[in-house]
Specification:
single chain, 149 residues, 1 helix, globular
Length: 149
């Protein structure tokens, strides 16, 4: 009986420690996913699009590649850079394919508000990566070196 009285509190303490570790891991993962939605510094990024649920980002790197980052929930996808096409004065399209991967990106110059921060961005984005479809916002990118990606 004394042994049981000793074992039960030890098990309860161990269970509490395990759940706090899981909470810490969840917080770290959430921070990593949110970081995906920031443009990489020092790249020739022409356009940067992003969204949530799950968190994702797409980068159009001048004369190099179009790069989709999912924040770890899906595989990242990279296709060759292609020149954009326009359907009207407010809409720009990028469509590229390599092997089994396809990216179709439509950018519309129209105010877009993110759900998390409520910030207004100048572009609405529709992105198709292979069989997945994503919607979000975007901004024109930053200039620099492609080597960071």
């Amino acid at each position: 009986m004394r042994l049981l009285l000793f074992i039960i509190p030890v098990m309860l303490i161990a269970a509490c420690n395990n759940s706090s570790d899981k909470k810490a891991e969840t917080k770290d993962t959430a921070k990593q996913e949110i970081q995906v939605t920031q443009p990489p510094a020092g790249t020739d990024t022409l356009f940067y699009g992003f969204g949530g649920n799950p968190f994702w980002a797409v980068y159009v790197i001048n004369n190099n590649k179009i790069f989709f980052v999912s924040g770890g929930e899906l595989p990242d996808v990279e296709v060759p850079y292609v020149a954009s096409t326009t359907t009207d004065s407010n809409t720009t399209n990028y469509s590229s394919i390599t092997g089994k991967d396809t990216i179709n990106l439509t950018i519309v110059k129209k105010d877009c508000t993110t759900m998390m921060s409520k910030e207004i961005h100048p572009y609405q984005v529709t992105l198709k990566v292979n069989k997945g479809k994503y919607t979000g916002c975007g901004i024109m990118g930053v200039k620099g070196s492609v080597s960071d990606l």
